[in-house]
Amino acid sequence: MLSAIESYIRSRQSASLKDISIHFSIHPEALEPMLGILSRKGRIRILPAACSSGSCAGCASACADRAAMIFYEYCEDDERE
Predict the structure, then answer these.
(1) Number of separate domains in the chain
(2) N or C: which end of the chain has fewer CB within 10 A?
(3) What is the pLDDT of residues 4-50, one digit of tens each?
(4) Structural domain containing residue 18
């Protein structure tokens, strides 16, 4: 499953947690640990989210659809630590 998720993100260069969730029919909270593994391995990285709510009090609590605000980007081999 990890390699399928990595391939999905690689084919798009980046993808939101919501898009990944929809593609694999997996709840976002169930995906986050798998994405964390890929991130720790240096395969992907989380992109900073721009706050669209205007509150800047933390998008996780302010935005209705947190999964649409979290993006992951594929790391090319030469970008890995």
Answers:
(1) 1
(2) C
(3) 999 999 999 999 999 999 999 999 999 999 999 999 999 999 997 66
(4) 2-79
